[in-house]
Write a structure and sequence with these properties.
single chain; mainly alpha; Alpha-lytic protease prodomain-like; Alpha-Beta Plaits; 2 domains; 3-stranded mixed β-sheet; elongated
Length: 308
């Protein structure tokens, strides 16, 4: 076989990870905003005695760490996109980053829950005016951060399971921060005007439960990617139907898994009495643009000797 033919048949395993992701630059801006807000809220929560505000600040700290994981995952995937050490590229690095971020988020929810429960048992004095001002500023920062990340997250195509789980993790962290800021403001305002000091730790409890729910959802989604369990039965059946539309052709083994944010790979084993070259079956699957790496194995079934 000529060198040109060999070069043409070689596979590129970058699957879109070799270019800078659209949300990467904005993620770095959000990290900077988060770090500044984190320092202010933790200092203010400690000084003013607000558990809700302190919880928001410490959650900001985990948020900054998680966003740093997001930024690192983007860099690592791009840096090693052409490395032969990764058999199918670095497309799962984003899911791994999202899984790590979700795990950190669940731990923070637990810490907030424990601390809030302690404050319910042993209340502390709160300087409401100062704490409300800081919480409001934190909410503004969270909303700006959400706007920076929102477009890239919402433009995923659910119908084709196209998700950047790394960016989704960052987006959920921002939403969790915004939620804890809202809870902190509600708790502080009711505490000031209605003398309901108990609302501060109660809002901490509520916030921790909502954050835990979001982190569970992200852990579930990213673990499916990491364990190659994400592709649903409809996707597999669509691939099977395309191949089995050929005369006397049966798919006896099929594996489909994610190799990039918007890319899937497939291994298809067929048995047929009317065998064609593997390239023929690959050409049939070109109607599915999300399939970027297809391997086909053809086994001939001789009539009267073999049965399918």
């Amino acid at each position: 076989m000529r060198r040109n033919d060999l070069d043409r048949r070689r596979h590129d395993h970058t699957f879109g990870t070799d270019v800078r992701a659209p949300g990467e630059r904005r993620t770095k801006w959000v990290i900077a905003l988060t770090l500044v807000t984190m320092i202010v809220e933790i200092a203010a929560g400690t000084a003013f005695g607000s558990m809700a505000l302190l919880a928001d600040g410490w959650h900001m700290a985990s948020h900054a760490a998680a966003l740093s994981v997001t930024a690192f995952a983007y860099w690592f995937a791009r840096r090693h996109s052409r490395s032969e050490r990764y058999s199918f590229g670095t497309g799962k690095v984003g899911a791994l980053g999202g899984f790590a971020s979700a795990t950190a988020l669940s731990l923070v929810a637990m810490l907030i829950l424990v601390e809030s429960a302690e404050r319910l048992v042993a209340p502390v004095g709160i300087q409401f005016n100062q704490a409300i001002g800081v919480a409001a500023a934190g909410l503004v920062v969270n909303l700006v951060s959400a706007l920076l990340l929102r477009d890239d997250h919402d433009h995923d195509d659910p119908a084709h399971q196209h998700h950047d789980h790394n960016l989704k993790a960052a987006y959920l962290h921002v939403l969790a921060d915004a939620l804890t800021s809202v809870f902190a403001i509600v708790a502080l305002v009711t505490g000031k005007f209605l003398a309901w000091a108990w609302m501060d730790p109660v809002m901490g409890v509520v916030g921790s439960l909502v954050i835990a729910r979001w982190s569970y959802g992200l852990i579930r989604d990213t673990s499916r990617v990491l364990l190659d369990a994400e592709v649903d039965e409809d996707e597999r059946e669509a691939i099977r139907a395309i191949v089995e539309a050929e005369h006397d052709t049966h798919v006896v083994d099929l594996h489909v898994w994610r190799v990039g944010p918007r890319h899937f790979a497939a291994i298809v084993a067929v048995v047929t009495s009317d065998a064609k070259e593997p390239d023929h079956y690959k050409s049939l699957l070109r109607s599915r643009p999300d399939l970027v790496h297809v391997t086909v194995e053809v086994d001939v079934c001789h009539a009267g000797r073999d049965e399918v």
